[in-house]
Write the structure tokens for this entry.
Amino acid sequence: MCVLTGGALILTGCSNTEETGPAVAKETVEKVDAIASALPDKVKSSGKLVVGVNIPYQPNEYKDADGKIVGFDVDLMDAVAGVLGVKADYLESAFDKIIPAVQAGTYDLGMSSITDSKEREKQVDFANYFSAGIQWAQSTGKAIDPNNACGKRVAVQATTVEHTEEVPAKSAKCVADGKAPIDIKAFDEQSAATNALVQGQVDAMSADSPVTAYAIKQSDGKIEPAGAAFDSAPYGWAVTKGSPLAAVLQQALQHLIDNGQYKKICENWGVQEGAITKATVNGAVS
């Protein structure tokens, strides 16, 4: 989850390795002229949406074995672009440069599992497309309570909000209650944290809900959810403040929600728990 913590941007996927995953079918989407007609002239004339994206963050955005940028976010944006009759052109970027580049007009939008926050809404507008929270996972059949994991080994990806805030706060409560602290195992990459759980080297892991959902889907039944997702907040596509593009993206997404293709894309990637039923603009909860 991309959140503001202590004035610093924390992103839950910050390595530069390529990752492999299953082939996922793409949805065939038809242009909707009534929605596409409202696109800004710049996008109409170029025939493309220039999208700034930071990778990897499987399953949302990452490079496949051929070096192509793929993922849930990519498939969804490709579908939105199809509704609008344009092509999405993905440009790799450092995460902390995406919003400034959107403000400068270098990118038409930023798409990198960005959590829509009140603070960020001062800089850009967001077309919200997903609800993500924190989700724990456990070895199948071995129950772990995220709110009472004192003394347990919990895997996280280093520098994420789970590593810097969520699990440490739970561990501190354990100590305050006279119990053993949580043994936090931090890994440079999420895939390593997941593998540690699959191999039984840790008791649980904590990650963003779509990341955990995808890991569970890929585990062949070896791991399962540990409780429900919590602390949910919307992901959003960042656009220039006041741009009509926010409303256009909202309408295109709502069209995909209404015709069922949005749900299908979510299911293709195993992230349907975070699916929304109404597209919004600037829906930050905090």
